[in-house]
Amino acid sequence: HIPREVGNMSSLTSLDLNANVGLEELPLFLGGITQLRILTIEGSVLTMPAIEIVRKGIPCVMEHLRYLSEATMEHKLDLSHYGLMKLPAEVSQLPDLRELNLDNNYISEFSEKVCRQCTGMTLLSLRNNRFV
Fold first, then answer.
1. Do the Cβ atoms of 53 and 60 come closer than 8 Å?
2. What is the pLDDT of residues 12-29, one digit of tens each?
3. Which contacts of 61-69 are long-range, i.e. CB under 8 A and separated by 24 or more positions?
4. What are the pLDDT digits (tens) for 61-117?
5. In sequence order, what are the residues at sequence separation of 6 or more whose Cβ sits closer than 8 angstroms to the Cβ of residue 29?
């Protein structure tokens, strides 16, 4: 795991996490480091963020982490048009989420874990996905 203290380094502009074979998840607190512009993660097999987000490149990864960081305070998250095949696991780390927009993705199944953990959700939008 990346030490939580890294999240307190508000002036950090570059973070090299290359060749951390055991690194599976980027912590949400990285999104709170607003000066972070360069993140290298080669050699890691990430499960969070979702592969669809990682494939779009580091700027998209950083934007996603910032959205998630903001969602912890604002209690709403918009992941529409992300090209997601499934609900990102990181949503389950936001139990106080009230609004979640997953419109216009390729999601075909919904996570039971999220349903159990986000009991206070008041708005869930799943328009234009692949549910059958």
1. yes
2. 999 999 888 888 888 888
3. 61/26, 62/30, 62/31, 62/36, 62/37, 64/31, 65/26, 65/28, 65/30, 65/31, 66/31, 66/32, 66/34, 67/31, 68/28, 68/31, 68/93, 68/94, 69/28, 69/29, 69/30, 69/31, 69/32
4. 888 888 888 898 999 999 999 899 888 888 888 889 999 999 999 999 877 777 788
5. 4, 6, 7, 69
Which pair of tokens denotes residue 6? 């890294």
What is the identity of the amino acid at 76? K
Stated pTM of the model: 0.77
